[in-house]
From TrEMBL:
A single GO molecular function term of this UniProt record: DNA binding
InterPro entries per record: Cro/C1-type_HTH, DUF5753, Lambda_DNA-bd_dom_sf
HTH cro/C1-type domain segment(s): 18-73
Organism: Micromonospora phaseoli
Listed CDD domains: HTH_XRE
Protein name: Helix-turn-helix domain-containing protein
Highest rank taxon of the organism: Bacteria
Amino acid sequence: MPLPTSPVIRRARLGAELRQLRRRETLTLEQVCERLGWASTSKLSRIELGQSRPDLADVLDLLDVYQVSPPQRDALIVIARDAATSRGWWKSLGEMSERQRTYAELEAGAAGIIEYQPAVVPGLLQTPAYARLRIAAGHLIDPAVDVEADLRARAARHAVLRRPEPPRYTALITELACEQAGDPVEVWREQMRHLLELAALPHVTIRLLPVGAGRGPVPLTPFSCYSFPDPADPRTVMLEALTTDVRLSTATDVDRYEQMAGCLLEAALPEQETVRVMASRLDG
């Protein structure tokens, strides 16, 4: 079974390809829109920036203007369909906030994910009870957060680790994330058992960062790195912030975060030692 594609990444790739084609033809945004009878340049600008789901008819019109040859045209049509698709499991994402949908679409097509969390268990590894506590805490800061809808969305995202051809997933978490802190004992114990269960999966790796690990500073901001089966799809980094997350896809930015992830992996406990420490805390 082929891996699904990530619509958000396909949109970014399609936009970059269309922008290159327009520049090859030495056309401005205004000139293209005038030829197509589009009211303003904002529509084309959003397509090129990967900020909107493209209509296939619009993409076909653009390919005609840029006089794209059949082999490249066919490849771009496939990408355009992936970029606009609502097929498959993400039809169920209707209730998701735009923020969660972005993560879900990245996860859907990823071949590899490396996630760093300095304070809590990463979302893909959370139990429903643990997730409820985290989401409810977010609701206190932003009353617009729909706790129940976010819980359903989080549960839908968890399926990516159980699909027939799952991504290679690596979680880097600090000791703080494994502390009970103020969580109810049973919620914490269930979460620790769940981590041990997931760590036994062949495609899941969990690495624990001890306090004071590594020579360099430990990042305070959670981030995740995504790679994709098609090497032409841009590698992507997501930075998790309090209100709005940041998506990075330039090679320079991604390289720096992948280097940081490599440094954290070097400082983290080995996989088997991580499992032993988590199990001892659960038994302690």
